[in-house]
Design goal:
Number of strands: 20
Strand content: 15-25%
Shape: globular
Structural class: alpha+beta
Oligomer: single chain
Bound molecules: flavin-adenine dinucleotide
CATH topology of one domain: FAD/NAD(P)-binding domain
CATH superfamily of one domain: FAD/NAD(P)-binding domain
Helix content: 25-40%
CATH class of one domain: Alpha Beta
Distance between the termini: 8 Å
């Protein structure tokens, strides 16, 4: 079989799925990655004895394409509680799905987070999205999440105290302007599965793929330029390529500059015990405050826990343009005053301006377009999710395999 030389730029989830699929079908690729580890936006680093995810990130076990490509049962997943602890004006309330999280039934029903009607609407919406297919959801007339929630009849109280902080932490924007299709998709995924994090941190996911499928990656090899039939790495090497798969999320499908949602992620350590015992998210429902959510990775990172100490992840979505040191001061003040935490020691700070690409309307269809021997790929062409990255990877690999079969037929 005559083989095209395929170069993949980027070892994020999309690039890894393309490489895995092609390798499983007997095709070799050259995979060039600018960093010294795989995963792109899904990474974990080690510091001060802790494993730190580069931005708080979960995977949703119901994601259909993630399930298809990653044997999730091999990742040592820790499910998060199906609910959240809401912090509001020095009060806390645990709410959640009473069918899946022990001990939240009464607090959910009697909480002042939303009316009884809101709780009935949540059950109704859960039943509805379970009936809809993912494709049907992405055909839903486009509007913002905020418009959808209001039109569905949810009270301002539950929108402000639950939906807004919860989905701000997911979409990484605090106006809920994100397409309602994305909201319905994520809501369906929460209704049908769990939010989970591997014990070793979110970066275990790409690390697993690399190891399991023997994917060879050329690390620290940023591509500086590309043209018809070649790429040039930053050290000046020109690598010829019959086909290039470019997974760098730099421009949208119509070559426009991408817009992004991002976040600031602080990691603090403090002496045990934890403020929230189980692996559950803590939401700040006060819109005047900067901290959006907190989570204790030390509630799951068993092998990396430091005895007697806890690791706390704190996410800020809207920093009101404060610089790092100002922001740090405000965050610590809020953690002390609103969450009653003390003895906090900053372990690390990540600023991640490009976390979730803004794709409006969000899409679920991926059409492979090859222009001058280059195929653009990535979540940003559909919707900002691991599921979209896996789907894009699968479709591109299938397209390449079809091409190879035609070429093979011609050479026989
Ligand atoms: C903080 C945060 C939270 C998130 N939360 C969630 C979540 O809860 N659930 C969810 O589903 N999704 C979440 N996401 C989004 C999810 O991580 C992405 O959808 C997914 O990782 C996209 O994968 P990708 O391969 O398409 O893109 P990337 O991961 O961006 O991959 C692109 C790759 O190209 C490499 N690259 C860039 N330039 C070059 C170059 N010049 N030469 C060579 N290589 C290059 C990059 O280093 C990277 O490895 C989150 C993302 C972040 C950052």
């Amino acid at each position: 079989m005559q083989q095209n030389k395929i170069v993949i730029i980027g070892a994020g989830l999309t690039g890894l799925i393309v490489a895995k699929e092609l390798k499983n079908n007997g095709l070799d690729v050259v995979l060039l990655e600018k960093l010294d580890q795989p995963g792109g936006r899904i990474r974990t680093i080690e510091k001060n004895g802790w494993s730190l995810d580069v931005g708080f990130q979960v995977l949703l076990t119901a994601y259909p394409y993630l399930n298809k490509h990653v044997p999730l049962n091999r990742l040592e997943l820790q499910n998060l509680d199906a609910g959240a602890t809401i912090f509001y004006k020095k009060r806390t309330i645990a709410i959640g799905d009473p069918l899946r999280t022990k001990g939240v039934l009464l607090s959910t029903i009697f909480s002042n987070v939303g009316t009884l009607n809101d709780k009935l609407l949540i059950f109704k919406l859960q039943r509805t999205v379970k009936k809809w297919s993912v494709d049907e959801i992405f055909e839903y007339p486009n509007c913002s999440t905020m418009e959808y929630l209001t039109n569905y009849g949810f009270s301002d109280n539950i929108i402000q105290k639950f939906f807004k902080p919860f989905f701000t932490g997911i979409f990484l924007e605090d106006k809920l302007e994100t397409s309602a299709r994305m909201f319905l998709f994520v809501f369906k995924m929460f209704a049908e599965g769990n939010a989970a994090i591997p014990h070793g941190g979110i970066g275990s996911l790409p690390q697993f793929l690399v190891k399991e499928y023997g994917i060879k990656i050329h690390y620290n090899r940023p591509v500086a330029a590309l043209g018809k039939g070649f790429v040039v790495t930053s050290d000046g090497e020109k690598i010829s390529a019959d086909l290039i798969v470019d997974t760098r999320p730099e421009f949208s499908a119509d070559h426009e500059e991408l817009n992004w949602n991002g976040c600031h992620n602080f990691y603090f350590e403090h002496p045990s015990p934890r403020l929230i015992k189980s692996p559950r998210i803590g939401l700040n429902a006060n819109p005047q405050k900067l901290v959006n959510n907190i989570f204790y990775p030390s509630s799951i990172l068993v092998p990396h826990s430091k005895k007697g100490m806890e690791l706390l992840s704190v996410t800020v979505v809207n920093s009101h343009r404060l610089g790092k040191s100002e922001l740090e001061k405000v965050v610590i003040k809020e953690l002390i005053e609103d969450f009653q935490l003390s003895n906090l020691n900053l372990v690390h700070y990540f600023f991640i301006p490009k976390a979730i690409p803004v794709v409006n309307p969000s899409l679920n269809q991926f059409t492979v377009i090859e222009e001058d021997g280059v195929i653009k790929a990535g979540d940003y062409l559909m919707n900002g999710s691991q599921n979209a990255a896996c789907k894009a990877g699968e479709y591109i690999a299938a397209f390449i395999l079809d091409k190879e079969k035609i070429l093979d037929g011609l050479t026989k």
